Sequence to fold (270 residues):
Amino acid sequence: MLSMTSGPEYLVFQKLGKKLNSDILFIELLGNRIVVLNSAKAASELLEQRSALYSDRICPAVFKDPELFDWSGSTGMLGYNDVWRYHRRLMSKFLGTREITQFHRIQERQTHSLLRALMGITLNAEPFEDVKQHFLLSMASTMFELIYGYRLQNRDDPFFQGFQEILKHGMNAVMLTNFYVNIFPALACVPDWVPGAGWKRTIREWRDQKAQASVAPLEWTKAQVRAGTARPSLLGMLLEEEVTPDLSNEEMNRRLKEMGLALYAGESHS
Fold:
């Protein structure tokens, strides 16, 4: 810890790597283990050439504990295991270079809508904020239609607002300095009645909001598929093809829900 000086993390790691004459560093801070790859060569050797050994990931305590935020089932939080490979296999059916062409019309229509919106904001007092909001809504609209076949109505759309709340709460929950359970996982065992344990109630409220908001668009898509009115979408096609016959309905819904939310989080904020 004493070797960790203040400043941007990447500069601190770079300086420490030069001091130790190594491109690969292992650091343990208050129980958190960090592996730093300080060069493209080191990253390529470990993450590409030896990906079967080094593709696992650590899930933060606040996400891993089902009694807290409970987000360990998200594609981005899964370990390198059969469930993660299942997610990847289903996503690859639609996200490859050739496969994604079936959704080009959706992307073109959303691009046209964005350009029309941008042309009308030059007279506003704070044009930059409007530009940012229009880009956010455009990306969100594109992803909702690609994933669920649902077209957002406006910024107040309940599906949009619900997903934005999930992402905001998730970012707040995983910050080490916001909740010390990420540093000391044993704090999750502290009883709720102990003074100072109010943070657990806050995280559980966020968890319950996530559970409700993340399932709502999936249920909408399922209803459209049953009615025969579903627009082309990733989850809609998976439901129609019944690609998960070996899973229970509950497990299938859980995986599709997590896949949809992970795709939205990854693409709408990239």
